[in-house]
Amino acid sequence: MTDKNVLVITRIFDAPVATVWKYWTDAEHLKKWWGPKDFTAPSVTIDFRVGGKYLSCMRGKPTPDAPEQDFWSTGTYKEIVPMKKIVVTDSFADEKGNVVSSEHYGMKGFPLELEVTFEFEEIDGKTKMTLHHVGIADIDEKMREGMDQGWNQSFDKIDTAVAAK
Fold first, then answer.
1. Is the predicted pLDDT of residue 7 greater than 80, yes or no?
2. pLDDT digits 0-9 by tens, 61-104
3. CB contact at 8 A, 118 and 131
């Protein structure tokens, strides 16, 4: 049975944990993959320590139906176990890092703050990463599917980046 409050995704990356870890902890590496396939990440700042914050921008490419749009997010690192685990809060934000409602971006149902845990395990030189995105019980099924798709498309970018190493 699925817990409607949690999105869980497990991926295997063809790279050691130390390589994959950089894509989560270094702003320049995070810029290479943050956001689904049709998004870029023009701005990412990371204060990678417990109590430190991140602020990132996903920029959607313009389409005939929608102009280019920036989606900002912020959060605070709650737990860091080097090469093993990252726990961080996750909120929509404005470009200054102020938390805003999801309605600011035309989406309804998201709480002001979610929690995301990333666990890393090295297996035969590859990295098994498991994401737990908690706090989404009130998000409708279409939005939940969009979150799943967005995370997976982002992880596809990590796959491409580590394969190029």
1. yes
2. 888 887 889 999 999 999 999 999 999 999 999 999 999 999 99
3. yes
Nearest CA to 20 out of 115, 165, 154, 158 is that of 158
How many angstroms separate the Cα of 144 from the Cα of each of 2, 59, 155, 157? 13, 20, 17, 20
Is residue 63 exposed (0-12), middle (13-18) or buried (19+ Cβ within 10 Å)?
exposed
Is the per-residue pLDDT at 1 higher than 60? no
Contacting residues for 96 by C-beta, under 8 A, at least 6 apart: none
User: Rounded to an integer, what distance in angstroms lies between the CA atom of residue 159 and that of residue 148?
Assistant: 16
pLDDT, tens digit, 9 for 90 and up, residues 12-43: 999 999 999 999 999 999 999 999 998 999 99
In eight-state DSSP terms, residue 61 is P
**What CATH homologous superfamily does 6-163 map to?**
START domain (3.30.530.20)
